[in-house]
Amino acid sequence: MKYTCVDGGLAVMRAVLSGMVSNVAYALLFVLLCFAHVNAAENDVVLVVNGEKFIRADLEQAFNVFLPAAVFHGGVNDEMRNKYREDAINFMVEQQLLYEAALKNGVKVDRKVVDAQVESAIKKYGSKRDFKKALKESGYSYDNYIYRIKKKLVVDKFTDEYITKKSRYDDAELRSYYDKNIENFKRPAARYIWHILVETAANASAGEREQRRIFAEMVAQRAKSGDNFEMLASQYSDDDYRVKGGLLGLVHKGQLVSQVEEVAFSLKDDEVAGPIETLYGFHVVKVGKQVEQGIVPFDKAVIKLRASLQENRYEAIRREVLEERRKSAVITVMDSEAIKSEESKK
After folding, report:
1. What is the DSSP annotation of 129-184?
2. N or C: which end of the chain has fewer CB within 10 A?
3. Distance of alpha carbon 283 from alpha carbon 246, whole angstroms
4. In this structure, are residues 193 and 200 in contact, taking their beta carbons and an 8 Å threshold?
5. Is 70 in contact with 33 (CB distance < 8 Å)?
C-alpha cells in the first residue's frame, strides 16, 4: 500500500494502518440526516483513497460515528476533532476499501432501495427544496448524497453476505468447541446476594462511625424482622445497587471484600446478616440460592459462546478483507493544520 501524506501526518498513517474501527453505526451517518454545518465546499478534499475523494463534510459525518450525540448539538468542536480525527480518517478509509471489495465481488443494490431511502429523508425535511438546502449547508450536493447512500447500502449488503453470514457458527461447531474447551466452562461456587451499604467516610471520627453503625443496626433489624429488603436497599443503601433493590446478582467467591464474602457464603438461603464492618462502612446482606462449583451446562453457555465466537470470527474475516485491500491501496491524507505544525518545527 502506498501512502502520500500531503500534510506530513504520520499519526494519521498509523491510525489507518491499525484497522481498529469497526463497521458499527455506519448506517447512522446519512439516514439520521443530522448534518453538521461545516461551511465547506464540495471540492474541499480531506482524503483520497484509490482516487475516491472524501470532502470535509464526510469527515464531519465520520466524527459523528464516534461522537453521535455531537450531531444533535451542531457538530464537533475543535478539541473533539483533534482527539478523534485519526479514528475518523481511518473509518473513511475502511469504508472505501470495503466498498471496493463489494464491487469486486459483484455486490449491487436495487436503485429502488436507494430511492426509497432518499424519499424517506426528503419527507423528514418536508420538501425536496428544503432537503437540498440542508445538504448544501452541510457541504453536499444532491447527487453527492445519493451516491453516498448507494455506497452505504452496498457496503451493508457486502458486510452481511460476505462477513456476517460467514461468521456464523452452527450448533455442531459450538458443541465441538465446548467439548474441546470444557475447562473454560468451570463455574466457581456462587450465590445470589442482595446488599445494603451504610457508608462511612474514610476520615470519620470514632463518634461518627458509631452513629453509622447504630443506623446500620436499625436497617439490619428491620430486614431480619421481615421488612422488604429491596425497599430498604432502595431507601437506605449508599451504593449504586440501590436502584436495583440492592441486588448484586449471582456473585462468585472472590468478588466481594473478604469480611462480607465470608459471612455471605456461610448463610442459609434467604437469611439476612449484618451489619458487617469494613473500610467502606457497614454492610447488611441477604442471600439467595447457592450454586455449587461445577461445569456450566452447554445449553446455559451456548448463547454467550455463540456471540463471542461469532464476534471474533467477524472481526477476523473483516480484518482479512481490509488487509488484502490495503496491500495495493493508495491513500492521500490532506491536513493543512498538520502542514503548519510540521513547518513550525523547521
Report:
1. HHHHHHHHHHT--HHHHHHHHHHHHHHHHHIIIIIIGGG---HHHHHHHHHHTGGG
2. C
3. 11
4. no
5. no
So what's the pLDDT on residue 76?
A: 58
63, 81 Cβ separation under 8 angstroms: yes
How many other C-beta atoms are found inside a 10 Å radius of the C-beta of residue 8?
A: 16
Question: What contacts 244, CB < 8 A, 6 or more positions away?
Answer: none
Classify 161 as helix, strand or coil. Answer: helix
pLDDT category of residue 95 using cuts at 50, 70 and 90: very high
Query: Cα–Cα distance between 175 and 298 in angstroms, integer?
Result: 7
DSSP string, 228-268: -HHHHHHHH--SGGGGGTTEEEEEETTSS-HHHHHHHTTSP
Give the amino acid at 75: G
pLDDT of residue 104: 95
User: What residue ranges of the chain are covered by domains with CATH 1.10.4030?
Assistant: 2-169+311-345
CATH of 189-292, one of 3.40.50.880, 3.20.20.190, 3.10.50.40, 3.40.50.720: 3.10.50.40
Residue 191 belongs to what H/E stretch?
strand 190-199
- Assign 206 a pLDDT band (cuts: 50, 70, 90): confident
Dihedral of CA atoms 250, 252, 258, 261 in degrees, nearest 10, equals: 50
Mean pLDDT of 222-232: 90
pLDDT digits (tens, 9 = 90+) for 128-156: 898 888 888 878 888 888 898 899 999 99
Q: What is the mean pLDDT of residues 273-281?
A: 88
CATH code for the domain defined by 2-169+311-345: 1.10.4030
